[in-house]
Structures are given as structure tokens and as C-alpha cells.
């Protein structure tokens, strides 16, 4: 009886498993994986690099930091070799502004320039397409000191001069540029909550030295948008005809689900979408902030002049999304206390229920939610999923059997395929992260990597996890029906017996 049942189960799994493979995606769909400069390079004080606000923030708090990280600065050739073995068609990485231009503006550091030229050269000769992020949280500290960094409009000119160097020096080999990484998280973490660089806030009970959570997040977001628009304009004017690339902008996206079917909760979901996503996507698509946001934030929300609105509108050739999970939203009935300053979160006025790790993995619906929403609300713009992945505590990973991660990636890539088949103009997908990195909120405790990095080993040895083998099989497989749940179990068995 048991064996009959299990045969039936296997049969159901086989027909039920959503087997798919890489060839089910459009021919030019970009598959890759991602890293970022501060989280991978290390060599923080070498060859002329100067600190960014991220170095300063972590050092001031005595936290884990990226001083050494994966030492990618010295190990880049070895890592490109791992990418080749994995069969990675594309790599997303970022440029450290203060390595290339240590003071934020002015002289270019020849050693920094050489490093990025060498790295990009290695990728290109191995047929790996570089997707470059220009700003990934790491503003040169000197610009923060001089005029308050992103809080000042002076940043627009300096950012534009920096990207001009990047386009000029690397643009023959780089066709995909992402100006700003996770603009909303940078803004909320750095200027509302104060828990990431530059660590500013004015929330009661938080230990920020200075800041203003009711105004700065909006000012910084405004300047990020204007700086992006200026970079994009420069690219169109000076480089696009010759280099033929495209310039996008990225946000951390979240799937939102109402906690009840009440009208209040439905409105709360829309408000959450407006504040967390529409905040920057609507100016890029329509040239202005969402109406609801303007109504709630009032005079604290900067206003686009007509000219700025025209410049920002249409300035993103694609939207980059970093998509990990969904949350349950309910209307926040508490009215903000009038004697206390408002902040970004009291402006949104919703309660978000964040998920435990197991629910996080189950929030597959969030990928579809976000892709469908962007398609319908914004007229189906081109999308690159610049990050997707799942964290695991590093001590559980010693045996490298990250089956949970394989199941997560398999399910999420399947959800992307469904969205593409339903008309979403999604053009690429990058696993976060290629290897274990220094992580923004968890240091070295949790990691997302497909390769394990032994951070206690002086050589920082890298070893493939199950997920690296799995992704590699996916990337190299042609029209073999791709692994459903049976295949994952088999892969795991094969992996254990080989290691
Ligand atoms: C934040 O800025 C606003 C507008 O300038 C001001 O009214 C408010 O008092 C400031 N809040 C703090 C905590 O400094
Ligand atoms: C969204 O929440 C509702 C309850 O309001 C629940 O019934 C539904 O299953 C949830 N949807 C998803 C996709 O989680
Ligand atoms: C497919 O797209 C259509 C049109 O945008 C939409 O109405 C529908 O809900 C989508 N289906 C799924 C399963 O997401
Ligand atoms: C990491 O490296 C240290 C030092 O070389 C070694 O003792 C340890 O066994 C390694 N850990 C793993 C999980 O490989
Ligand atoms: C997939 O197809 C390509 C080109 O047709 C071929 O070079 C490669 O060997 C194939 N890979 C596998 C795993 O069959
Ligand atoms: C792979 O797909 C192509 C096109 O659909 C088909 O012609 C070919 O026979 C397939 N090869 C295998 C080994 O299934
Ligand atoms: C596992 O190994 C067997 C025997 O080598 C092989 O036939 C099978 O394709 C492998 N499965 C996976 C999912 O790699």
C-alpha cells in the first residue's frame, strides 16, 4: 500500500512539478548573479581608495565591516573563473566611487581605474556581460563632510561628473548601467531609521547624532532622482549613439497583501505601494510623485519644477527591482501624535507584518504581485530583477547543502517565467548573491551566497554550495526539462555522495 501511495505521489509530483528550463525564457533574457563593491572587494585602505559613508558608519559603531570582505580586489581573477565554471552569462557588480575618485570629485585614482578595467576585461573575455551599478550605498565620505552628501543639490553635479568617468572609461564594454541601488532602502535606512549609512534620524529612542526623519528622506530621494536624471541625460547626449547601452534605476520592491478585505486595509495596501515604490517609480514614469503622497506629506515633499519633471520622466530605460519577499499590510489606526514629529513611516500610516524565514520563502506570491503591478500601473516598462535570493544562517551552511535556497530560487524563477508568459517585459534575473558577502544588515552572520566563503580562513577559500551546482545546471542545461522537486532531491543526493 505504502509503495503504491508513494508511486502515485511521485507520479503526481512529476506531472505537477513545474518543470521549465532556461530555453523557456526569451532568447536574450539575461541570467546572472550579483555582488557589490563594498560587500565583496575589501582592500578598503589600499591603492588610494578613501572611505565612503559606509566605512565610516560601521567603524563608528564597532560593527562587522567590509575592510576585507571577500578580498575580491585581489581575488577577482579567481572569482571570474568560478563564474565561468558556473556558466554565468552576466554579472551585476558596483563601482566604488571613492576607489575611482577618492575625494568624490576631481582626480581619478589610476589604481582604481586599472582595477575596474582589469575586472571588466576578465569578465568580457570570458563572455560574461557586465551590469554595472554606479551607486550602491557607498558615497565618498568627503562629500558627506563637505556639504551633506545626498542632502544637498550639489551632489547632482558631482555624481554626474563621476558617472561621466565611468561611461567614458568602461562604456565600450558595459551596456547596462544602473545608477542607484535600492533608492528607497538607502533613503529610509540612512535618513529615517538611521540604521544604515550615513545613520541619520530624529526618531525618539534612536541614538542618531543628527538628522530629521520628517524631511530628510524626501529631500534625499528627490536628489537621487535628479542625479539619476542628470546621469541619464548625459548618457543620451554623449554616449548612447556610440555605445548603445541603457541606463536604469533600482528600488527594493515588496509584495503587499491586505490583512483583511476591509476598505481601510485595501487603501493601506495602495498607500504602501505609493510610498515604498511609487515614490520614485512614478516620477520616473509620469514625472511626479503619487497624489496620495503629495496630500499626506504636504510641504515636506519637494516639488519638481516643470523642467525637472520633464527631465526625470522617461529617464529610466528600465526599472531595476530587488525582490525578496512580501508582507501583510493593515491600516494603522493610530493617528500620529501632533506634538511629535512625523516621519516617513507615520506618513505611510500602515502596519507591516514582516515574515519569519520560513514564511519569507513561502511568499512566492510577492514576485507575481510586484511584476503584475508594475506592468499594469506603469504601462509595462522593461524590468530587470537585479536581486532575488534567500538568507541562511552561516553556521547551518557548513555542509553546503542549501536545499532551501535551491527550492526558493527554483520557485522564484518559475514565478518570473509565468509573469513573462503573461506579458511582463521582464528582461533579466540576478541571484543575490554570487558568493557569501558582507551583508548590510547582518554582517557575516547570515548570507545569501551560492558559494561559501570561509571568512576564518586566511585565503578566504570559496566552495560551491548545492545552489551553485543547481544554478549551473540550470544555466548550462538546454532543453532537458528542468528540475522540479524530484530533481532537487536527486541533485541533493548526488551532491552529498560527491562531497
Ligand atoms: C525637521 O525639519 C522641519 C522643517 O525644517 C522642522 O520644522 C522640524 O522641527 C525639524 N525636526 C527636527 C527633529 O529637527
Ligand atoms: C492575502 O491575504 C488574504 C487575507 O486577507 C488571504 O486570504 C490570502 O491568501 C493572501 N494572499 C496571499 C497570496 O498570501
Ligand atoms: C495576466 O495579465 C492580465 C493583464 O495584465 C491580468 O489581468 C491577469 O491578472 C494576469 N494573470 C495573472 C495570473 O497574473
Ligand atoms: C575555515 O578555515 C579555517 C582556517 O583555515 C579552518 O580551520 C576551518 O575548518 C574552515 N572551515 C570550513 C567550514 O571549511
Ligand atoms: C547547449 O547547447 C549549446 C549550443 O547548442 C551547446 O554548445 C552546449 O553544449 C549544450 N549544452 C548542454 C548541456 O547540452
Ligand atoms: C531541443 O529543442 C530544439 C528546439 O525546440 C529541438 O529541435 C531539439 O530536438 C531539442 N533537443 C533535444 C535534445 O531535446
Ligand atoms: C544524479 O546522478 C545521476 C547518476 O550520475 C544522473 O543520471 C542524474 O542526472 C543526476 N541528477 C541530477 C539532478 O543532476
Automatic annotation (TrEMBL):
Keyword Glycoprotein: yes
Listed GO MF terms: beta-glucosidase activity
Protein origin, superkingdom: Eukaryota
Signal peptide (residue range): 1-19
Catalysed conversion reaction: Hydrolysis of terminal, non-reducing beta-D-glucosyl residues with release of beta-D-glucose
This enzyme's EC code(s): 3.2.1.21
SUPFAM superfamilies in UniProt: (Trans)glycosidases
PROSITE patterns found in the cross-reference section: GLYCOSYL_HYDROL_F1_2
UniProt xrefs under InterPro entries: GH, GH_1_N_CS, Glyco_hydro_1
One GO BP: carbohydrate metabolic process
Keyword line: Glycoprotein, Glycosidase, Hydrolase, Signal
Family: Belongs to the glycosyl hydrolase 1 family.
Protein name: beta-glucosidase
Origin species: Arabis nemorensis
Organism lineage: Eukaryota, Viridiplantae, Streptophyta, Embryophyta, Tracheophyta
